[in-house]
Backbone:
């Protein structure tokens, strides 16, 4: 039996309560809010478009994708490619374990909690449809909400084109179709065009 609505709400509420502690604020039309709460809401909004019938475990994994990430900043690892991958690997393991504990505390079964953890760790990306949905959603949020600021900070067009190509390669056809319908600024459109041109 899947988690009840009450169990799902308890898990999502606990996750959002942690997101609300993020000291980094981002502007929104209704005023500044903690960045990770904003990010989680964006993830959920894109999940609703990409997979309206998503099961509770995927909905929780989507909401907890960056769980308490601000506590482990990128600067806590070496500024190298190896350092970046070590940071990302540690975050995935940590976020998965913390989200699974919230699920168990909210009444999910051990198997359901582990399913959430596997999704957050993005295990079997190409073989697990729900993991692919999560990757699509994360990529869509990146393109819609983070891309232009990331490109400004990076300041290297060739690297940005390479990042876009790698992002595109990880997405499914359904995710790519959504991305192509997305409204983008002129510079973003140009860079995406370059990336897709090969």
Residues:
């Amino acid at each position: 039996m899947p988690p009840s609505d009450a169990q799902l709400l308890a898990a999502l509420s606990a996750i959002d309560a942690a997101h609300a502690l993020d000291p980094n604020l981002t502007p929104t039309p209704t005023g500044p809010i903690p960045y990770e709460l904003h990010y989680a809401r964006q993830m959920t909004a894109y999940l609703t478009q990409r997979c309206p019938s998503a099961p509770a475990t995927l909905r929780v994994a989507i909401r907890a994708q960056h769980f308490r990430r601000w506590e482990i900043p990128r600067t806590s690892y070496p500024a190298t490619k190896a350092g970046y991958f070590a940071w990302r690997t540690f975050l995935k393991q940590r976020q998965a374990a913390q989200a699974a504990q919230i699920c168990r505390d909210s009444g999910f079964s051990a198997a359901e909690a582990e399913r959430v953890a596997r999704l957050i760790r993005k295990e079997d990306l190409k073989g697990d449809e729900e993991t692919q949905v999560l990757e699509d959603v994360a990529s869509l949020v990146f393109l819609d909400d983070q891309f232009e600021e990331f490109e400004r900070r990076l300041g290297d067009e060739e690297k940005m084109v390479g990042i876009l190509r790698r992002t595109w390669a990880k997405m499914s056809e359904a995710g790519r179709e959504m991305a192509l319908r997305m409204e983008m600024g002129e510079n973003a459109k140009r860079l995406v065009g370059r990336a897709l041109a090969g």
The chain has a mean pLDDT of 93. The longest strand covers residues 25-26. The chain is about 70% helix and 0% strand.
